[in-house]
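Hi C.,

You asked whether I'd gotten around to modeling the 257-residue construct. I have! Everything is below, sequence then structure, no commentary in between.
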Amino acid sequence: MTRTNLMLGFAAMAYLLALGNIIYIIGFLADFGVPKGISDGARIDIRAAVAIDTGLILLFGLHHSLTARASFKRWWTRIVPAPVERATYLCMTAIATALVFALWQPVTVTVWQVQSSWFVILIHGLYLATWAMMMAATFHFGHFSFFGLAQAWQNFRRSPPREAKMTARCLYALVRHPISVGWMITPLLQPHLTLGHLIFAFATFAYILMATPFEEADLIADLGDDYRDYRKQVPAFVPRVRMRATSSEPAVRQRYP
């Protein structure tokens, strides 16, 4: 089996692993259909649990952000072949996420609990719709490139790599970081919201606020004035009440949050 075949097989495995990782996260936050949900496990002192859980999310974010930086990638691709750099990143992310799940300490203090079955259905619907929105956002700039499969396929076909780009329309005409917005709100879309969900939500929110300036600095370095203009036209996280379609539709490349 040739090296290109092996890289393509590895990328396909990483793609499936990444999708499985997302499915597990959906079940983890909803406390449904997974071996360990956010409220499962032995209880420990609440102060220790809050400290551990907050640290887990921030440590995950540190790994997630550092390994996504352009400077790290330049060094990393001296070791890992460029066609599977993204696939390797996704594997590392899955391992880091698994550690969060395994070490997560449940904090089951109830913040709210919806009793009406109709509201429960509505909240579950909004939860799944938000995840669908996040997945749909990946197609704006190349779903298979985002998940590392296109790079290995292009290498297998010996075709020149294509830069993943998009235009500032649809979700990206409303906010610059729709996937990050999804990460901010999905922990809160729970009919039975616990303090553990709030810890996950607040720690994720803090990580996104800290990591986004570094992400956008890389985008400015890549795209220059196109991205500077895009930043002026489109808010980062909260859509404006009235939006005008951009006339130039600047090219924008987005990274995994």
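If it helps when you're writing up: The radius of gyration is 19 Å.

Thanks,
B.
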